[in-house]
Design brief:
The protein is mainly α and 152 residues long. The protein is built from 8 helices and no strands. The protein has helices spanning 8-23, 31-37, 42-53, 57-75, 80-86, 92-103, 107-117, 124-149. Helix 4 (57-75) runs parallel beside helix 7. The protein is elongated. The N and C termini lie far apart (59 Å).
Length: 152
């Protein structure tokens, strides 16, 4: 199979889609949504994304979720199930399998290893409060913009 290369003007759109995947990794971005952000058909997007980044969009999203899970397991006192749900997985089994494929150990073993050597843990309630506060501030900022844009 011949290698597909992304034209320079399309790379900007692929980066925009990758940034969208990074920002919305826990929300479950599908191929069609990511392709629309890049202004490409989903099949062309998939081909060019893999050519440029070396992984498919689904693999990229999965890797991003596992990276975030590693951060949460190292730094917080959240349970493995809470971390699983926080990074966008709906199945603990799928999360554990994928985590083990990428990291080489189960999430529980990873968390225990870091609990011994790592820094003090951030309480999970703070993590969830921060996430909710962030979403609330995004919503209030968008409400302010729409209120300012709408004529009275």
């Amino acid at each position: 199979m011949a290698e597909v290369r992304a034209p320079g003007d399309v790379v900007v759109h692929l980066r925009r889609a990758r940034d969208h995947l990074d920002r919305n990794f826990a929300a479950g971005v599908d191929l069609g949504e990511a392709a629309s952000v890049a202004h490409l058909s989903k099949f062309h997007f998939h081909r060019l994304f893999r050519s440029l980044y070396g992984v498919t969009p689904a693999e990229y999203l999965s890797n991003r979720r596992i990276e975030r899970a590693q951060d949460l397991l190292r730094a917080t006192n959240l349970t493995v199930t809470e971390v699983c749900m926080a990074v966008g997985y709906s199945s603990l089994g799928s999360f554990t399998t994928r985590f083990r494929e990428i990291v080489g150990e189960t999430p529980g073993a990873y968390q225990r290893r870091w609990a011994i050597d790592g820094a003090p843990r951030i309480p999970g309630c703070f993590v969830f409060m921060w996430g909710l506060a962030e979403r609330r501030s995004d919503r209030s900022a968008s409400d302010e913009k729409s209120a300012a844009a709408s004529p009275i």
